[in-house]
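Collaborator request, handled under Task 6.
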Amino acid sequence: MYVGMKGDFGSLSFGRQNTAGVQISDMSDIGTFTGDQKAFVSAGNEQINNTIAYGYDFESFKLKASYIADDQKNADGYGLSGIYSAPFGLDIGLGYAANDLGTDKGSADQIIAGLGYTMGDLYFGATYTTGDKDDKADTEFTGIEVSAQYKITKEFRLIAAYQNQEEETKNVTKDKADFFELTGRYDFTKNFRSYLAYKANGLDDKDAGYKVEDTIRLGLRYDF
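Structure tokens returned to the collaborator:
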């Protein structure tokens, strides 16, 4: 929950809400299992407590900035992002986020870039992120996500996506995510939808630390 105001100056809000970088991750986060690339760094994640967010929409450019006043000492964070929309359906986005991890616990930062292209009922999106998950522990990360969506009818669409994430700690690299997704989605109304999603997991059991299995998910979703 958050409160805010909106006017010619843009929008300003405070509370539990998305940080600035989420508008970039949303460019490829259109599936059921997608979007985890924003979770590497708290300052770039969604639905974060004590977040101050500012947004301003120019004619073809969307600017967002955020600041996290964390309850924990020395754990504040900030983010800045922008998306330029060309007149022929191409969107280009770039964002940066950083936050401390607590007293004497180091810090984390992230650069995230995104592309989106809309052509009628077809949409393509891609994001790439890289940064330090914990500079004190020397843990770095990279992530890529590509997705496509085709609206067959007004109510029904097909979504396909691929995601890969890696973390490197002291020159040892492990996959954190590696999967393909195929989803069918049916919208009953603007707020109510159903979906059937299949996730083909390509992670190695050793990297995951558990027995990796594919996933099928059937669900209903209502947005208030």
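The cover message to the collaborator said: "The chain has two helices and 13 strands. The chain has one domain: 2-222. Please let us know whether this matches your experimental observations."
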